[in-house]
Amino acid sequence: MGDGSATLTWPTGILGRDAIAGLAALWVEALHALAGCGELRGHTPSDFPLVALSQGDVAAIEAATPVPVADVWPLSPLQEGLFFQARIAADGDVYIAQDAFDLDSRLDVDALRRACALLLEQNSALRLGFTDAGLDRPVAVLAARLEPSVTEIDLSALSAEERAERTESIMAADRRTPFDLTHPPLVRLTVLRGDGRDRLLLTRHLLLWDGWSRELVLRRLFGAYAAVRRGDAPAAPVRAQFPDYLAWLGEQDDAAAAAAWSSAFADLAEPTILFPEAVGTDPVIATRMSVELTPQDTARLSEQARSIGVTLNSVVATALGLVLGHAGGTDDVVFGMTVAGRPTEVEGIESVVGVFLNTIPARVHVDPRAPRPRPCAACTSSASR
Questions:
Q1: Beta-bridge partner residues of 333
Q2: What's the CA gap between 192 and 107, in Å, rounded?
Q3: Helix, strand, or coil here: 299?
Q4: Pairing between strand 150-154 and 187-193?
Q5: Out of 158, 182, 201, 363, which could bridge 190 as a Cys pair, Cβ 3.0 to 4.6 Å?
């Protein structure tokens, strides 16, 4: 096959030779890339079908992201809220979660690193970074490939008391260390070497996965670790992925949903504020208090819910509405309620890692003649502990 040639003609006096030469060079570069001899530079909006972008938006995303970009996604509803809170908090970002696991043996850090790499490869939502630089709204940027963040700290030479003190200090500092949201991975693992035993810290930004997904991530991480140690072949990738949910979300009627919510709260006179002094304060890391009911009380609540044809969650929410109504002196109470958000219309949704949770407003009309709620003895004693 002979050499190919092309002749370009143009109207003189309108276009210059240099401009045509530049166009010809780009054309030849594109032909080489299509023939497998080169690589096209950058992306175009058509490469990212889940979001509406201009070429300028694409350039802004690539400039703001320090890793190779594989895709760009919209944010789920809760991700939008978390991103907004994280941005305004800056170094005070409190949406960082930490899990600690005490192990009865030494961890193989090299195997853990390879297992984490497999986890990132097979669960695309774990390779996300986030940016709104130069954009009308934030987007999630999927990294094409990532190296896992795994750190090893040897505390085995310390005494038991010194090791415990140092461990608590490391955990507290790790929990307070913010992520750069534009630079994935937004999850890091830290192995604290002890005296024959190790502690594993898994710290991530809440933009990556929700509570349901947490169990999936842990099971897959430790499963991959065991497989790597045995020398087994990697598990098959999960079929359904987070963008399947995002595509479903994009098909929903947002205008109809907004109208329904507006109608439901059109006559609401004011918000329910339990602690007015907390309004406008800076975000802080959450603390927890556990309140336990006896098995007998739980059984009675469940039976009551069944007898009136509602869920146990509805009974619990109603009790909260009663308490807030009495505390705030109002008979129209609104508070946030967490919902799972995994649509059954998406096949395999139960196996997908991502942020599906959302907090929606629940409204309870309180009868002012209702008696003040009285906690049972079991609740009082559990709370006091």
A1: 364
A2: 10
A3: helix
A4: parallel
A5: 201
